[in-house]
Specification:
- The mean pLDDT is 89.
- The chain starts with 14 loop residues before the first helix and ends with a helix.
- A three-stranded antiparallel sheet has the order 1-3-2.
- It has a single domain, classed as Orthogonal Bundle (Arc Repressor Mutant, subunit A).
- The protein is built from six helices and three strands.
- With 115 residues, the chain is α+β, with helices and mostly antiparallel strands.
């Protein structure tokens, strides 16, 4: 059985470390996946994630926006409407996110077969 807590020794400035610093964590990759299917309003994004609090989603979206991966558009209507979409840099991550999806799906199927 593979070791679950394997640590990779990555020298300072390692590109993998830099990438995971931006998209790592429980929610960022999933947020990017859902936004890859098109722009979403805050409430729709929260519903699609299931289990994330509004506070955590706000925090993750702000970090992704700060890192240039997500664009936040506020519409001047009542009630206020805010849409989130992937930026051009966020779009460049789609092949990575799609590869993670495929890998995760295969892993789930393998686990289901073993059960």
């Amino acid at each position: 059985m593979p070791e679950k807590s394997k640590r990779y020794d990555c020298a300072p400035g390692c590109p993998v470390e830099a990438a995971l610093d931006v998209i790592g964590g429980k929610w960022k990759g999933v947020i990017l996946y859902h936004l890859g299917n098109g722009g979403l309003r805050f409430g729709a994004l929260q519903r699609s994630l299931g289990g994330i609090t509004a506070r955590m989603l706000t925090r993750q979206l702000r970090e992704l926006e700060s890192d240039g991966l997500v664009v936040r558009t506020v519409h001047a209507v009542v009630p206020p409407r805010v849409d989130y979409t992937l930026s051009a840099e966020g779009e460049s991550l789609r092949p990575v996110i799609d590869a993670l999806y495929d890998w995760g799906r295969a892993r789930q199927e393998k686990a289901a077969e073993a059960a």
